[in-house]
Amino acid sequence: MLSAGKRNLTIDIARGISILLIVLAHGTLGFRIPGMNQVLSSFRLPFFFFISGVFFKKELSFDRVLFDKADALLKPFFVTLLLYGATELFRSRGEPFLYLLGLVYGVGASLPATWLPLWFLPHLFSVFIFAWVFIRISRIHERPDWLKGLMLLLLILAGRLVLELLGTFTFRIPGAGIKWSGLPFSLDITLITGAFFICGFLSRDAILRFVPRTSWLLLTIALVALIQYFIRPSLNLNARSHESFFFCLLSALLMIYPVLSLAFFISRMWLRSLFSYLGAMSLFILLFHYIIMMHSIRLFKSLDGVISWGEEAVILAVSVAAPLLIGETVKRIPLLALFFRPLKVNPLFQRRQS
């Protein structure tokens, strides 16, 4: 189990960095800085799955994992989108059955455009279930290091094969305009994302002892820079698109070291509390940053048609600050927290147990 010491703080900060990278990639800043979106797309989601795997507990029963992750991931996903759907229906927009079908299918294309990043939540749920089954069957954590690496590589190779076989799969409903790529809950990319998740699980002890070395930091940054400059890989898991697939994954693996190093350095700075807080509130940032960002962009464009650097900074700040405000409000109202936060941290259930 993760200790409450300094190393745990480093991991929480890394999670805060990862959610900020996702917010950054969804903004318009990437169009101002050449190559920024390309670099971010090659590693931001793989790193998020990697750091999520660090928190995985193999000792839990399947029923416990199923309930806990449905409570923590699926519940806020469905609650948020059902509330949004209710407002749209009240305004006489959309077809209820098709909307609900899109939620159950749970891929980016089946969700409302302003809530597209929420595809991540049902997919992360499927990754937790896959990881529990794979770890229990393979006993990968008990294998020699070379075999662990081989098994993860085989997972990625199998994932690439699944992408090739199912890359053209599209769920369609003739006459309804339904055209959704991928399997429900994005199961067709689970082998790839699951490999990074399990890699994080296997690396937990090493990360808890992590202290960056300058030579390794410079080497990994140099290798990533060379890959990005000469190969220009890109990876969009939601769109099932990739260029230079294996260089993308190599770049993602190499970037783990610099991001963890950055988290380590921040853990020794006054910013550590802020980034740790962002990591703890990552669910609310993921839930609400995109719709707030889209409305903010429309607002600034309606004022003068062009978004300045200063306005871009304001949009990014609001896209993080507003979800934090929503999260703090939810935390302080136990009845509201029932719909967005895990039951085990809700004061109403804690009082009942005590």
| Oligomeric assembly | single chain
In whole angstroms, the N-to-C terminal distance is 24 Å
Helix content: 55-70%
Residue share in β-strands: under 5%
Give the ordered list of helices and strands. HHHHHHHHEEHHHEEHHHHHH
Segments where pLDDT lies below 50 for 5+ residues? 1-7
* Net shape: globular
Class from helix and strand fractions: mainly alpha
Count of separate DSSP helical elements: 17
Biggest β-sheet, characterized? 2 strands, antiparallel
Output the radius of gyration. Answer: 20 Å
Q: How many beta-strand elements?
A: 4
Strand order of the largest sheet: 1-2
Q: Mean of the pLDDT scores?
A: 89
Structure description:
The chain is mainly α. The protein has a domain at 55-202. Helix content is 69%, strand content 4%. The protein has helices spanning 6-26, 29-32, 36-41, 44-53, 62-90, 96-105, 120-138, 145-166, 190-202, 204-208, 214-230, 245-266, 272-280, 282-304, 309-332, 334-337, 347-353, and strands at 170-173, 178-181, 234-236, 241-243. The strands form two sheets. A two-stranded antiparallel sheet has the order 1-2. Strands 3-4 form a two-stranded antiparallel ribbon. Helix 4 (44-53) crosses helix 9 and helix 5 packs antiparallel against helix 7 (120-138). The longest helix has 29 residues, at 62-90. The radius of gyration is 20 Å and the shape is globular.
